Amino acid sequence: MGKLKVTLMRGKAGVCERQLRTLQALGLTRRNSVVVVEDTPVFRGMIAKVQHLVGVETIQ
Questions:
Q1: Distance between CA atoms of 43 and 50, rounded to whole angstroms?
Q2: What percent of the chain has pLDDT over 90?
């Protein structure tokens, strides 16, 4: 499987607690922070929940 580069594009102000926990679980702490995660259904689901806050790129 490949990897995904996830970037927090928008701030966390005004976001509900559940989405804040999802961002924390992904390892995104502040705006423009970047993490690289495995391309698995678990991470895809987490990204889908906060898709309006993050940017995703595929890494080979």
A1: 11
A2: 97
**Model confidence over 31-47: pLDDT tens digits?**
999 999 999 999 999 99
CATH of 3-59, one of 1.10.3470.10, 1.20.1440.80, 3.30.470.10, 3.30.1390.20: 3.30.1390.20
Predicted pLDDT at 1: 76
Distance CA 60, CA 55 (A): 17
At 58 the pLDDT is 96
Domain boundaries, the chain: 3-59
CB 16 within 8 Å of CB 58: no
